């Protein structure tokens, strides 16, 4: 995908929309962008890095004039393999938060921008937006290991809701000092092998510990109940 195809991402209109969406940030948030600048097959590495930096510039500033969104670019071409290992990242581009327990594998563009921005705001505010019942279920009943893969496409308008739900469950698991849920949003076009593995015909498709459990946006309670049933203890 040529970079000029993404010129519409970097317009004043998009910047204004981002500023408006991010204005409720409270505390700093670290975002990690994993790329390989020497990999000619990584068609989305450069645009992902540029877009995350564009989001950073639209975020509110702290008292020192620094953006509340702290961008960390990890480039495999610079020998930064240690952080790839630490975050268990193997594919580029990957955009991650919370030591990689919240991540996009593939560029979080198109409709996924909404999920990216909302994730940033919620992490910044310290609020997942999940119901008290869901939060207590995560604390009390979700103690095993869970990996959620949310397979999406950039044009899918419902996918951000599924992405956000999964990410916020991972966030609450980390807030409960467990960090036992890894939430990975997978861009289907860039990771066709994963989409094919799960025989994805429509999106969002949600796999829990490598078994497709939901097609479409799950109900919050059903989603967490399924994670509890499927957890690896």
UniProtKB/TrEMBL annotation:
It comes from the Archaea. InterPro entries: Thioredoxin-like_fold (IPR012336), Thioredoxin-like_sf (IPR036249), TON_0319-like (IPR011903). Coiled coil: none annotated. Transmembrane segments: none annotated. Residues 39-118, 147-224 form the Thioredoxin-like fold domain. Belongs to the glutaredoxin family. This is Glutaredoxin.
């Amino acid at each position: 995908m040529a970079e000029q195809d993404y010129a519409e991402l970097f317009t004043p209109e998009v910047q204004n929309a981002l500023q408006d969406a991010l204005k409720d940030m409270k505390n700093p948030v670290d975002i990690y962008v994993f790329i390989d600048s020497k990999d000619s097959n990584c068609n989305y590495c450069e645009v992902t890095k540029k877009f995350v930096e564009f989001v950073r510039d639209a975020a509110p500033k702290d008292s020192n004039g620094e953006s509340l969104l702290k961008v960390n670019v990890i480039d495999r071409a610079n020998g930064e393999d240690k952080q790839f290992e630490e975050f268990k990242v193997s594919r580029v581009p990957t955009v991650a938060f919370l030591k990689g327990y919240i991540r996009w594998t593939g560029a979080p563009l198109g409709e996924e921008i909404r999920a990216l921005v909302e994730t940033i705001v919620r992490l910044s505010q310290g609020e997942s937006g999940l119901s008290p019942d869901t939060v207590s279920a995560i604390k009390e009943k979700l103690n095993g290991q869970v990996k959620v893969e949310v397979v999406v496409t950039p044009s899918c308008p419902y996918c951000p809701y599924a992405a956000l739900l999964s990410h916020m469950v991972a966030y609450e698991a980390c807030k409960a000092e467990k960090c036992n849920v890894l939430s990975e949003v997978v861009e289907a076009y860039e990771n066709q092998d994963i989409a094919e593995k799960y025989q994805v015909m429509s999106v969002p498709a949600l796999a829990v510990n490598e078994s497709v459990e939901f097609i479409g946006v799950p109900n919050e309670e059903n989603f967490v109940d399924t994670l509890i049933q499927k957890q690896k203890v």
